[in-house]
Amino acid sequence: MRSHSFALFFERRFSKSALMALVFAPLLLSCGSTSSVEVAPNPVSNPPATTPSLLDAYPPLPAGPAPGASPEARAIASKIGRGINFGNMLEAPNEGDWGLRVEDRFIDLVGPGKFSSSVRLPVRWSNHATPDANATIDAQFFARVDSVVDRLLARGVIVVLNMHHYRQLDGDNPDDKERAVPAEVVDVRLLAMWKQIAERYANRSPNLLFEIYNEPHGRLEPKWNDMASRAVRLIRKSNPTRVLIVGPTFYNSATKLSELVVPPDPHLLLTVHNYDPFDFTHQGAEWVVPVKPTGVTCCSDSQKQAIVRNLDLAVSAAKQLNYPVFVGEFGAYSKAPDASRAAYLRFIRDSMEARALPWFYWELASGFGIFDLATNQFRSQLFDELYGR
Ligand code: GLC
To answer: Is the CB of 329 under 6 A from ligand 1?
Structure first.
């Protein structure tokens, strides 16, 4: 079962908070400009903080303008195309807890010449790492991830390996079967885990990309720019040129790209998620509280506008920031009416492709899935709307 607190945040992302952000953004901006009246720092009354922090071991990059994406990062972005999330597998509290494991038959589906040669692989590292500042990743779990990553890479797949569902980092309650960690080590563990992951995969193909954290939200929002900068600096020690991925706060909402401070590094891509219209895409989803009524159709003009608004925001922000952006998640849950689900998939896919946005559908074979485990076949209509002509 998924966490309800996650669901509450998830829900708020598209309703109350979105509204608040729109209402208060101009106000906050104007506050920002008033308070930017120069005030000389007073080192006597404002001594620099000297309390040693566990994060000191992982300093951020020196502040500076992000240089824009390198040709290598742009080349990878242009190879992503139509991707697929291997969701509900390795990011369940334990693989199998959500009814799915990474199976050979899934790996056999992907690769050049197949329906997709780009896989986003969500992984819940935190639940397989010691609950201390070192966050030592369990050897067996690491070996399991190695085997999936290496089989995908061997097939020529672009693999986005991420860190997914570290609930306490966002201030959410741990899921069932998820072990809590002491408050003082929550942040540093993100970096300690990335140190191990980055070192472990340092010699893998450049087709392996690291996405620093899925859908930062809640508690993490005010710290996110700083944490992302620390993570990039740390990963660069072992992976000087690997393409890394950062996304905005508020569950990777395009509306928050304007607040993302892109770490000053050229080998980066940006990512956003798009589940609008949420009442449609998440109707009947058991992990959204309260559960949304079913029977919602798609796509009216206003629903279409909601979808493309986020895509347009992503495109314009990415252009301004001078980094490519891709849509790392979008999708409609199985409880949506079939015809509308198909119409939604066709519309959002065409809209993304009209904007040259690479994408990863959420997800392969679970509740949003395009692959039917029982028949061992793709669900043909959904599949065609996404990956067909
Ligand atoms: C979220 C999460 C994913 C979740 C999905 C559907 O954005 O990243 O773990 O299952 O969207 O709600």
So the answer is: yes
